[in-house]
Amino acid sequence: MPRRLLPTLVALVLGLAGLAVGLGYLHRIFAAEREDARASLRSRREALEQYARASLGQALREGLDASRSTLAAAKEDPLVATPGLYLREQGEQVLPRLALFDTAGDSPAKDRYARLRAGTEVADEDEGPWKERLERMALVEQSLKAKDRRATLLSLMALLQHRARFVLASTRDLPSMLVVLEDVAARGDVVPDLMRALVRDGLVDGQGGGRLEGLQRLLLLKRSRLTPEDFDFLRGKVVALSTRVGVPVADFEARTREMASTPLPLPEDVREPVLARSGWYLEPLQGSDVRGLALDLSGLLAGLTREMRERGLLKADGHVTLPGDAPVLTLASLPVAVESPEWTRGEEALESRYRIKTLMLALCAALALTIAVLAFVAQQRKYRFLELKSDFVATVSHELRTPLASIRLLAETLEWRVAEGADAKDYPARIIREADGLGFLVENLLSFNRIDKGRWVPKLAPVRLDELVSNLRRDLESGAPMPVELTADVDARELNADAQLLRLLLANLTRNACAYNTRSPVRLHVQTLSGGRVHFTDNGTGIPASEWEHVFGEFYRLSGRDGREVPGSGLGLALCRKIARLHGGTLRVAASSAEGTTFELTLPEYRPEARSNA
């Protein structure tokens, strides 16, 4: 039995090995799917972060571009409000405006204003422009006292022309203009638009001398030439004058209050757009010039988060952040991060599915191993059962052989003693025929058992087919249960076979033809063909095409045409095929119909050189 189980064991081992390889490849596929899903998750996250980075950069650039006109105006007009704007030119901060003052410690502008009011200001000989300014101021004063409106306007225009031609120090220019305009506002009747321009907006010199700034703008522009005390003093006077002539002062006072005392702590070298965590977005201009925009970084990120949620790009629990602690971030590589519990849930779901698939593979492997073990045990039990069956058949057959021999002996004696009585003469013949049938059955059982267990080694020798047919004809004449006509179309061909086994094979085909036949006589025909083929044809009831292979099964029997049960063991055709295979040949149903069946037997022919070698 171990030798029989060896092919089964080899097949199971090879099957399990193939299954292991398949499961291994499947596990690799699952691992690759997990990595692909992770990559897809990372790709989606990176795409969202890229979108957030681009949206943030676009918002910063658009915000700064929107303030371009305000920056240009603020650069020229110190009264323009510049909330959240930054401008640096030639290394100096222009916006937000700085409160840069002269640190001399005294108050020359305030003192000069007092002397001008008291009429005690005198110019030195080398101060020609200042002396001329004082003279023109005196002409304006005389015109005002004379209440000559035309003379006042002419003398004022002459003063403005002189002011446009000569640039005096701020500590002289500002107090002198302030005194003149205060006097004009208090005693003169000058054109109101001119007064407002001189106090606030300024005038354009028609002779190409440039622009004459009003007092408000001039004071803001020249603050670095004044001491803090002078600035505060002049600011108060300008506010009072502006109020008197009806010029707005709210923006002027706001500009004086919002001036910073120190420059903003922003990076010096800005070569590309950057974002400072302190709340500024900066862009480089020509040279070392820089412009920028103050921003609410947390509010900007919150707005971007809200926008992405509204677009369906983020869940309600997701948000955009700027991780890290670097004080300055370049716009091209902003470390924008999209944080969401969705990523964590996705990773956990991936791992969960991967673990489930791996567990399923392990269960499949365990199940396959269990099935293999059960199959091996079942096969072992099957072979054990077959051995028991074979032993049983052999035992029963052996036990039947002795009584069958006794029956035949008694029948022959009976036949001899009652040869003279006609009535009893049929019984002995019937006993002999039945005994022969039982003997044939026993012979089939014994032969089947020996061949099935590999105990019959065929004695191969040259066998003439015509001699086999002749022997078969003699057997039919002496023991056929019904009339049988045997015809043959055979030549002197020799087969390399065991003569006893071939005789048993033909006898089984003959008995099978007689059992499945309703005609009388039973006609049999044996014919030889090329290639070692032998056709055995009968005129029986035929075999359905669907049963052509099944009839060669062990213990398989077909019912008769009228449904009657046909006697037999079901081993005849199975034994015939085993005999054919034992010789290295084949046996099959070549054709079958209601007119009969043709079996094709193929056996190796005897070669003459085999005899010479022997």
From TrEMBL:
Domain Histidine kinase: 395-607
Cited Gene3D superfamilies: 1.10.287.130, Histidine kinase-like ATPase, C-terminal domain (3.30.565.10)
Alphabetical UniProt keywords: Kinase, Membrane, Phosphoprotein, Transferase, Transmembrane, Transmembrane helix, Two-component regulatory system
Xref: CDD domains: HATPase (cd00075), HisKA (cd00082)
SMART domains attached to this UniProt entry: HATPase_c (SM00387), HisKA (SM00388)
Catalysed transformations (reactions): ATP + protein L-histidine = ADP + protein N-phospho-L-histidine
Enzyme class: transferase
Protein name per Swiss-Prot or TrEMBL: histidine kinase
